[in-house]
Design a protein that fits this description.
Layout lengths: L29 H10 L6 H18 L4 H12 L34
Helix pairs in contact: 2-3
Length: 113
């Protein structure tokens, strides 16, 4: 995969696409997962990589394709971080987290700050 000329008949730039990216799926390797994390700005330590890889492969078996948003959500879940939600001036907020490990419908009530 290092030499794209092996499997691409033309360069993406020639047809108006900024760059070619490979899709993460159930046949992707650890290096591909780590590289995609770096591309989206998420640094993964060596000790995290095995757990991340297993989680990504389990997700890929169910969903077929792992998007950048999916990958970011998986990393957040493994690290125990949660997405930040800001309500501004609205009384009702909905949040969708693209992860099958989350219960589909959850409701929370609060007074705000």
């Amino acid at each position: 995969l290092k030499d794209r000329r092996t499997y691409e008949i033309m360069r993406p730039e020639e047809v108006g696409v900024p760059a070619a990216t490979l899709v993460l799926g159930k046949h992707s390797g650890r290096h591909a997962v780590q590289r995609r994390c770096e591309q989206i700005g998420v640094m993964v330590e060596r000790r995290e990589l095995d757990d991340l890889y297993r989680a990504v492969m389990a997700y890929a078996v169910r969903q077929k394709v792992v998007t950048d948003a999916d990958l970011s959500a998986i990393v957040s879940r493994l690290r125990g971080t949660t997405p930040h939600v800001s309500a501004s001036q609205r009384s009702t907020q909905s949040v969708r987290v693209p992860d099958s490990a989350v219960t589909p419908a959850e409701v929370g009530y609060g007074h705000g700050v």
